[in-house]
Amino acid sequence: MCYDIKTKVEAALKRARHYGNEEAVQMLIEKFRPFLEDEWFHVSGFQHPKLLIYTGDNSEMPLVASWGLIPFWVKNEQQQLDIWNKTINARGENIFEKPSFRTSARSKRCLVYIDGFFEHHHFAGSTYPYYIQRKDGEPITLGGLWDEWTNKETGEVVNSFTIVTTKANSLLKKIHNNPKLKESRMPLILDERQEEIWLKGTANDAKKLIVPAADGYLKAHTVRKLRGKNSVGNSPEAIEEFIYPELHSVLDLN
User: Fold this and answer.
1) What HEC string does the chain produce?
2) Domain ranges in the chain?
């Protein structure tokens, strides 16, 4: 799954910088600053943060969207609240059939740039958080779905998104071992060539991309607790390596 991430505006602007001039990027930063945190060292999808996403409508410049997809057909605020926490992630294997996602899967796919993400390992009755990032330290591009919903009670137009997940690669199989789940999962990670296909390709093109990230692409280390009274919250400590002797003596990620 992918419920917890680290991201900053600079990482999210990677694509805009690649395609646009610096003046346009600076204008974007000023435009979005009132709506965004400059940096999330740790944020959960259940907080429904506003992040930058890229869509096929304008693949070079981002828009602000809330994490947790609200389908266009949601009728009112109560239905929106009921569905919001259920659409943080979307299983890639059924996004073209599930009512919450199928319209977006066909025509509203998006990219989400992050620095890294967190997953929990279960061991001896406890959970241990890992921070996962690219080995080269570059931002990770996640495949997502988005939609535009109009709140009929207020007239507000809300952009929202979900992160697509797929089966885990060898690294995430070792880490993501929740006994309540049938299998290990990971977010859909795209390389630069795949980004364009995900945004603008056909449904069949997109389906072919829903596979685990290549082994050797990511690295991981344990961090301090992300939840509960001992949580470090949204601080740099959230991504600093923290050793749990009882775990590291039995789990080898190499």
Assistant:
1) CCCEEEEEHHHHCHHHHHHCCHHHHHHHHHHHHHHCCCEEEEEEHHHCCEEEEEECCEEEEEEEEEECCCCCCCCCHHHHHHHHCCCCEEEHHHCCCCCCCHHHHHHCEEEEEECEEEEEEEECCEEEEEEEEECCCCCEEEEEEEEEEECCCCCCEEEEEEEEEEECCHHHHHHCCCCCCCCCEEECEECHHHHHHHHHCCHHHHHHCCCCCCCCCEEEEECCCCCCCCCCCCCHHHHCCCCCHHHHCCCCCC
2) 4-248
Rounded to an integer, what distance in angstroms lies between the CA atom of residue 243 and that of residue 52?
33
Structure tokens at 182: 């049938």
Model pLDDT for residues 129-142, shown as the tens digit of each residue: 999 999 999 999 99
Right CATH for 4-248 from 3.10.290.10, 3.90.1680.10, 3.40.30.10, 3.90.1150.10: 3.90.1680.10
User: Model's pTM, two decimal places?
Assistant: 0.94
d(CA 52, CA 232): 24
Q: Do 163 and 173 meet the contact criterion of CB atoms below 8 Å apart? A: no
Distance CA 169, CA 216 (A): 9
Structure-token pair, residue 84? 């919001």
pLDDT(114) > 70: yes
Distance, CA of 179 to chain centre: 22
